[in-house]
Design goal:
The protein is of the alpha/beta class and 155 residues long. The protein has two helices and six strands; from the N terminus they run αβββαβββ. The termini are far apart.
Length: 155
């Protein structure tokens, strides 16, 4: 069983014994704790006898990343994730009182879907609604017209 060993080291060792070794990749999520270049599986399986000229296939992880649930992250953490994976991030803002300002409330990529470098991701972030201005009472009373007592104006 060569699982957990470095594929190139196993390949060199077995080829020196006359075996033909092929290294192939198998997609695994990075959440499965696979390491780059490490054998995760082999064919034929452990325990089968091999002779000179036989072919042994070693499988190493082709690690991929999936989109997380950004609504559980800060905008800074989301930006760091995008920077690490070559994702183009666009932030849009939506007025709401239902969550704290700055909280990610929507994402256009479903959590759990594979990430591809160069992809576009849009996150919607909560912002406080614009305050509606309330009329402020005037501190100086407005002048009201006063009746004139000038007799000449009555004619």
């Amino acid at each position: 069983d060569y699982a957990g060993q470095t594929a190139t080291a196993v390949q060199k060792s077995l080829e020196s014994k006359g075996l033909v070794v092929s290294i192939e990749t198998k997609k695994v999520s990075d959440m499965e704790s696979a390491k780059e270049g490490i054998v995760i599986e082999q064919e034929p399986a452990k325990g089968e006898k091999l002779e000179k000229g036989d072919i042994l296939t070693l499988y190493i992880a082709e690690i991929y990343t999936v989109y997380p649930d950004f609504t559980k992250m800060t905008v800074a953490d989301a930006q760091e994730f995008c920077d690490q994976h070559g994702i183009n991030l666009t932030l849009t803002y939506e007025e709401t009182n239902s969550v704290e300002e700055g909280t990610i409330i929507k994402q256009n990529r479903t959590a759990g879907v594979e990430v591809f470098t160069g992809a576009n991701l849009t996150l919607t972030v909560a912002k406080k609604p614009k305050a509606t201005p309330t009329p402020t009472p005037s501190s100086t009373p407005s002048a009201s017209p006063t009746p004139s007592s000038d007799p000449e104006e009555d004619s």
